[in-house]
């Protein structure tokens, strides 16, 4: 009747940015991510005939009908899919352990924790592949949060074949990601809308054509623990994603002035021999890939540039876990 799960968020190094099927959230490209230890969501899913109405609490605060809509639609879709009792009510309690205002998207950890707690509460006995497919129906990036470490989401061609799998769940590698908060306000353009607009760029297809070779190259870099290659491929994938946004019709960008300041800082640091690379998602915040050894110096350079901005130093996180 009741189950609790924890899922960590992930950041894509080769980006997912476009859907072949909106309802099933089948992607147009494969992607590779790093699951992070510093950010996670705990979700308890409870279903019972005794509950009087469906409810969704986020960090103990009951969400309005409108705020709960995406979550309710998702649960109703899953109940239909598994032929479960549609009349029973459910209660969801989620806690986002994302350091306040770190400015990181939480839909990946949120839908992964929700899919896992839902499946466990109904004793569906799903393996991680099936859970990954289920999480995908909530949010594309959640597909990857079922696994820890480095994860590949193989785009597949249908609901059966589009799921994530671990490349290396427990990498023995000194690789860190500094999440730098530029602005924590609500996104101006949601990921779903942004990726739809981006497809209007004349360069979009060219980018897609490169997807498989970027995936192969990143997997090779991961296998060899080659930081330079991993960083270069990640930075390029982020640049390509933001380039198709700028070149869409009409063009748009998630960048803010401080985003560009940080991009320039990463270039300057590299010229000074401090190896680091950036990646940026559907917002102005910048994540910097580096080693732990260099992270102190990079953090102080960021503070020198932007004052007292919030920076979270993250490394590899685990896959989905069940909690008592
Ligand atoms: C830029 O997973 O948030 O973070 O599938 O519509 O829920 P939906 O989108 P979402 O998009 C994530 C886009 C990204 C890149 C990535 O995580 O691969």
Helix and strand arrangement:
Layout: E1 2-14, E2 19-21, E3 26-27, E4 31-48, E5 55-58, E6 61-62, H1 65-81, E7 89-97, H2 107-121, H3 128-138, E8 150-154, E9 163-168, E10 176-180, H4 191-198, H5 204-224, H6 227-246, H7 257-271, E11 277-280, E12 286-290, H8 292-306, E13 311-314, E14 321-323
Parallel strand pairs: 5-7
Antiparallel strand pairs: 1-4, 1-14, 2-3, 4-7, 4-8, 5-6, 8-9, 10-12, 10-13, 11-12
Helix pairs in contact: 2-3, 4-6, 5-6, 7-8
Keywords: ATP-binding, Lipid biosynthesis, Lipid metabolism, Lyase, Nucleotide-binding
InterPro entries: GHMP_kinase_C_sf (IPR036554), Mev_decarb (IPR005935), Mev_diP_decarb (IPR029765), MVD-like_N (IPR053859), Mvd1_C (IPR041431), Ribosomal_Su5_D2-typ_SF (IPR020568), Ribsml_uS5_D2-typ_fold_subgr (IPR014721)
Domain Mvd1 C-terminal: 182-309
Describe this structure in words.
It holds the Pfam family MDD_C. Residues 7-164 form the Diphosphomevalonate decarboxylase-like N-terminal domain. It comes from Lactobacillus hominis DSM 23910 = CRBIP 24.179. This is diphosphomevalonate decarboxylase. The chain folds into two domains: 2-171, Ribosomal Protein S5, domain 2, CATH 3.30.230; 176-314, GHMP kinase, C-terminal domain (Alpha-Beta Plaits, 2-Layer Sandwich), CATH 3.30.70. The chain is built from eight helices and 14 strands. The chain is α+β, with helices and mostly antiparallel strands and 324 residues long. It has helices at 65-81, 107-121, 128-138, 191-198, 204-224, 227-246, 257-271, 292-306; strands spanning 2-14, 19-21, 26-27, 31-48, 55-58, 61-62, 89-97, 150-154, 163-168, 176-180, 277-280, 286-290, 311-314, 321-323. The strands form three sheets. Strands 1, 4, 5, 6, 7, 8, 9 and 14 form an eight-stranded mixed β-sheet that branches. A four-stranded antiparallel β-sheet has the order 11-12-10-13. A two-stranded antiparallel ribbon has the order 2-3. Strand 5 and strand 6 (61-62) form a beta hairpin. Helix 2 (107-121) crosses helix 3. The chain is globular, with a radius of gyration of 19 Å. The chain starts with a strand and ends with a strand. Ligand DP6 binds at residues 12, 15-17, 25, 31, 105, 107, 139-141, 191-192, 281-282.
């Amino acid at each position: 009747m009741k189950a609790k799960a924890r899922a960590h968020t992930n950041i894509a190094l080769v980006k997912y940015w476009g859907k072949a099927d909106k309802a099933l959230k089948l992607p147009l490209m494969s992607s590779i991510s790093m699951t992070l230890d510093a950010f996670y969501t705990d979700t308890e899913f409870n279903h019972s005939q005794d509950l009087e109405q469906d409810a969704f609490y986020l960090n103990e605060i009951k969400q309005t009908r409108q705020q709960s809509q995406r979550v309710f639609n998702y649960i109703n879709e899953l109940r239909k899919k598994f032929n479960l009792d549609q009349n029973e009510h459910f209660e969801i309690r989620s806690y986002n352990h994302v350091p306040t205002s770190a400015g990181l998207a939480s839909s990946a950890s949120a839908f992964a924790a929700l899919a896992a707690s839902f499946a466990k509460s109904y004793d569906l006995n799903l393996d991680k592949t099936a859970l990954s497919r289920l999480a995908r129906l909530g949010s594309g990036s959640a597909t990857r949060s079922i696994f820890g470490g480095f994860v590949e989401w193989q785009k597949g061609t249908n609901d059966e074949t589009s799921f994530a799998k671990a490349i290396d769940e427990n990498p023995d590698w000194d690789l860190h990601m500094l999440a730098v908060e530029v602005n924590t306000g609500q996104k101006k353009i949601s990921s779903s809308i942004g990726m739809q607009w981006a497809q209007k760029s004349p360069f979009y297809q060219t980018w897609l054509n490169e997807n498989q070779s970027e995936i192969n190259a990143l997997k090779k870099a991961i296998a060899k623990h080659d930081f330079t290659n991993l960083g270069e491929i990640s930075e390029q994938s982020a640049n390509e994603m933001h380039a198709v946004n700028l070149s869409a019709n009409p063009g748009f960008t998630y960048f803010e002035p401080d985003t560009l300041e940080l991009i320039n800082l990463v270039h300057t640091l590299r010229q000074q021999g401090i190896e680091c690379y950036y990646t940026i998602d559907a917002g102005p915040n910048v994540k910097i890939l580096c080693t732990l050894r260099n992270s102190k110096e990079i953090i102080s350079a960021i503070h020198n540039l932007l004052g007292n901005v919030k920076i979270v130093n993250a490394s590899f996180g685990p896959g989905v876990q069940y909690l008592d």
